[in-house]
Specification:
- Keywords: Membrane, Transmembrane, Transmembrane helix.
- The chain is α/β, with parallel strands linked by helices.
- It folds into 2 domains: about 45 residues; about 160 residues, Rossmann fold (3-Layer(aba) Sandwich).
- Helices cover about 45% and strands about 15% of the residues.
- It contains 9 helices and 7 strands.
- It has a 7-stranded mixed β-sheet, with helices on both faces.
């Protein structure tokens, strides 16, 4: 069955044809032609506005980053956060690594020194998309290690982290707390640290992230390889 947008476009095209004939006899045709063009533009914009924010499939939550032969052979460190802190954590911990690709609300980066490790930053709006909850669970379960970032001046960023669930037992994790200059603290460092301990994650403030991330990586490599291999590839 034709969509409403398609029907509007076909109707506007028909009116354009009539107005072209009417244009020969009267200036009213010009007005009709102008209005029909405006309707087509409006229909296009309406159709775009109804599309999802992120190109997430309604199929079972599998992404190219997880389903390809290459990705299955790699360790995966996945960064989560409601604000820019997750991306800032990735960039600071790894000194601005090279971006590899972007799709489905995920941005992947190459580890600067290891060919067997993939870095993935998750867009916070992924969970609000269709099947977003299943998609997030797949990301969490497929991660070899996780980094969760929040802002002490933004209580909602902490609520976002607390709302994530399904982390496998024994999965290495790092909770990073950032401070905003000249802004009041809405969440205490002690509260965040206790939350990290309850989940078995390491904790670090933003100025200590480099050393804390190196510790997370050591824990990750102490685990069995995702495909069961014991040999570590490095450059």
């Amino acid at each position: 069955m034709p969509s409403r947008t398609r029907i509007v476009r076909l109707g506007a095209s028909f009116v354009q044809g009539l107005s072209a004939v009417a244009l020969i006899w009267t200036s009213l045709g010009f007005v009709i032609l102008f209005c029909s063009c405006s309707v087509i533009v409006y229909a296009d914009e309406l159709n775009k506005s109804r599309q999802h924010i992120l190109p997430i499939s309604s199929d079972p939550p599998r992404t190219n980053f997880y389903s390809t032969k290459e990705s299955r052979r790699k360790y995966k460190i996945v960064f989560f956060g409601q604000g820019p802190e997750s991306m800032q954590s990735l960039q600071r911990a790894l000194d601005w690594p090279r971006k590899r690709g972007e799709a489905g609300g995920l941005v992947t980066y190459d580890h600067p020194t290891r060919r067997d490790t993939m870095l993935i930053n998750v867009h916070p709006k992924v969970e609000s998309e269709k099947d977003g909850s299943n998609y997030m669970r797949a990301l969490i379960n497929g991660a070899t290690a996780v980094v969760l970032a929040l802002n002490l001046s933004d209580a909602e960023s902490f609520e976002y982290i607390k709302g994530l669930n399904g982390f496998p037992q024994g999965q290495p994790g790092l909770l990073v707390a950032w401070r905003s200059l000249h802004q009041d603290l809405m969440v205490s460092e002690e509260e965040i640290r206790n939350f990290a301990n309850q989940n078995g994650w390491d904790f670090a403030m933003d100025d200590d992230i480099v050393g804390a991330f190196e510790g997370l990586v050591r824990k990750m490599f102490a685990k069995p390889h995702p495909t069961g291999r014991t040999r570590i590839l490095s450059q």
